[in-house]
Structure formats: structure tokens, C-alpha cells
Amino acid sequence: MVMQHRPLTLGWEEWVALPGLGLPALKAKVDTGARTSALHAFDIEPFGPAARPKLRFAVHPVPGRTDLTIACSAPLRDRREVTSSNGESELRYVIETTLRIGEAEVPIEITLTDRTNMAYRMLIGRQAIQPDWRISPTASFCQPKLSYDIYHSAEVKLAAPARSLRIAVLSREDNHSTRRLVTEGEERGHTIEVIDTTRCYMAINTLAPEVHYDGTRLPRYDAVIPRIGPSITAYGTAVLRQFESLGTHCVNGSAGITASRDKLHAHQLLAARGIGMPQTAFAASPKDTDNLIGLVGSGPLVVKLLESTQGKGVVLAETRKAAQSVIDAFRGLRANFLVQSFVKEAAGEDIRCLVVDGKVVAAMKRSASGDDFRSNLHRGGTAKPVRITREERDTALRAARVFNLGLAGVDLLRAHDGPKVLEVNSSPGLEGIELATGKNIAALLYDAIERKVRPAPVRKRRTAP
């Protein structure tokens, strides 16, 4: 992009904007005695790969207003020692961005420093002043005046620039879904870090809760994408709760993951919201086997381990006698399980609806392989895109909402009396549904994350004096 500027007359103070940082109005002091421009910033943190380092920082754009914060990020250009007018030297980070004064826009270097006690949030040095600009040291505001009121309008959020984010993917596996999240995020200019959940440990206290990893404290992330495996649900959600206590945006919350993983609890929550599902029963005592079967029908029946995933631990019992044998076997293993009616009209097919941020963004029909009644792709099933009905879409959205999941795979059966929810998956795989539908699910997920954490003004509540 070629920047253009026109001859200007500048007073000793001017209204300026830094649109690339999401700062539409700043009152700046023009100081020809300073070589490089300076901007008030705090919480300055470098991040990103060594070859392409970035900075993120926060700005209080209005003097005296610490309750109004703008989050910014920019490529890191340099770090150099700067001597202030009072003779003090400071090692400062240097970024490059666009300065707008009146109708002129020019690229400039800016050093970042804490100017909390300064009357001006920005200082314009002589490097930013173009050769054909004229300085009138006795005049002020020669260029059009702006207003801090813009920070209280919707215009700031609508015009906010794309900000590089630092995002953690909690995952122990180097699988397709994790790699897709890393690749897509980096293509959008974000820094994506894959964190092995089991190698995290936590400092739990009221003043400064922390998450540590391999001997160091983890940095502040803009967002966390949890890909927590079923075998570590308890510990994984504990780590996620720590991030939640830090105020980090988590795509899926710990409570929703915990509830969705407990199949018995999940079915109870779905039933309480009136969401259709196969007739389900559960009992702890072996004396109740016959009554348990009677609650869901004579057969065929599905017996399902509460910890089952990807079709493992799910058995179809064709007859009542077969169901009794399977139940006795599971009880002999001291395994927790539930019994469900078999939806015969589904004919070995189910529908996976992918929900992102309250919208069904893709749907595929999965068909079982051969005589297997399980349609999971991990068990040889096949998938193709499918057009779902309004009722199916509504059911999927309601099911995801029960667990407050920002990313969910909702599995449905098509029954004669409407869709039945089989499961709500809080860590749905991306490979199968992206291949089947041709949709970039990872990109849609990042769209949602960016909407949640984009640099809109952050206003803190004022405490009573």
C-alpha cells in the first residue's frame, strides 16, 4: 500500500489517529527535539515466532481514563535505547504503523513507553514530519479536531483492525484437527501454540492464579481452544478452569466439557430441556436388569459404556436375552453403562451437525460399513454432505446450547417422530466433516474467536471512592 501525504501546517499540539492500531483519536504533542515518535503503552508483551516477532500491548487513549483500554498488536521492528528530555535512558520496543493527521497518512516508527503521567498519550518526533510540512510552534490544532467520544460509539468496533492473537490449543495429539488449527491460525497472522494438557501445572491462589508448563509460567493468551481427550477429562478441565479464572476466552468451557463427557448426566440435561433422544435407562443394581430393559423396550437395544468414544464400547443387542448377556458382561467388568432403544428406521445412518458459535455451519450424513450399526468414521463408516431440516437444525443448536459449547459436534438420528440426539461432542474432529462438505471449519472457528476478542474498548467498572 502506497501512503500519500499532502503539505500540512502543524501546531505544537494536534489531533491524530493510528488506524492500524485501532486508535481513531489521540491528542499528540509535536516535538521536533525528539527523533522518534512515542506512544503510551502498558502490558507490553512480545510473542510469535523468532523470524516474525510481534508485540501486543494495551493503551489508555484518554488521559486520566484508566477505565478505557484499547488492546493493540503490531509487528516488532526493533528494540533500542531512547534518552528522554530529562536525560533518562530506557530500552524501548519499536513498531511501525500508519499515522493519520487530517487527510494525510504516512508510515512512521513509534517507540512504546508508559506515559501515564504525561499530558499527551502520543509524542510526534521529527522522523514522522514530512519535508514539505510546516511547523507553527505558537499555534495549536491547525488540523481538524477529533473527539474522544468516538471511543464510546460502535464505530470503533466496526473499524477495528485485524489484530494478531496469541492462541493456545490444548491437545496431547499431533492429529489432523490440531494441525488444521495451527495452519489456519498462522495463515491469519495469529500465533498458535500447542500445549500438552498433562504437562501443565497450576499455581492456585486468590491474587495471581497461574498456569505453568515445562518449568515456566505460560503467557497470557487471547483464547484457548480445548482439544481434551476423554481419558484426561478431569485433569484437562481443571487446567481449563485455571485459564477461565485468568479471564481467558475459552471456546468451550470446563463445565460444558465435563457435562457432555458424562453420558448419563448429558442425557439427563437434554431430557430436562425437552430435547428428543432415544429412550434411555440406567441402573446400578444387577437385580434391576429385567426392569431396566423393560423401560426401553424388548429389543433390539443398544448398550453403551458411559466412557465410550468413536463407537468403542457400544453394543447392539438384537434380543432381550442378548441384552441381558451384554449387561451381565459389563457389570462383571464393573463398568458404568446405559441402555437405549434402537432406532431401526435410521438404518445405520446418523447426522453430524457441526455447531460454531451458535450456528450450524456444516452437516454430514454418516453411514455404517457393512453390517455394522455404528456409523463412526473411525470404524470404517462413510460420509457425505446432507441438507438438514429446520427441526434438525433447531435440535442441534438447542443441544449445543445446553452445554454452552462454542464448538460442538451434535450427532442426530432420523426417527419417525423427529430427530433424536445421540451425543454432543465437545472436541469434534475436523477432517471428516471438512472433507465431506468442502467447508473450512477451522476458518469459521477463528472467525468466531476473532469476533469475541477483537480490540474493542474495554471499560472497567469504576469503584466508589
Automatic annotation (TrEMBL):
Keywords attached to this entry: ATP-binding, Ligase, Magnesium, Manganese, Metal-binding, Nucleotide-binding, Protein biosynthesis
Cited Pfam families: RimK, Rimk_N, Zn_protease
InterPro entries cross-referenced by the UniProt entry: Asp_endopeptidase, ATP-grasp, ATP-grasp_RimK-type, ATP_grasp_subdomain_1, Peptidase_aspartic_dom_sf, Rimk_N, Rp_bS6_RimK/Lys_biosynth_LsyX
Gene3D superfamilies referenced in this protein's UniProt entry, alphabetically: 3.40.50.20, Acid Proteases, ATP-grasp fold, A domain, ATP-grasp fold, B domain
Cofactor list: Mg(2+); Mn(2+)
NCBIfam families with a match to the protein in the record: PRK10446.1, rimK_fam
UniProt protein name: Probable alpha-L-glutamate ligase
Organism: Roseicyclus marinus
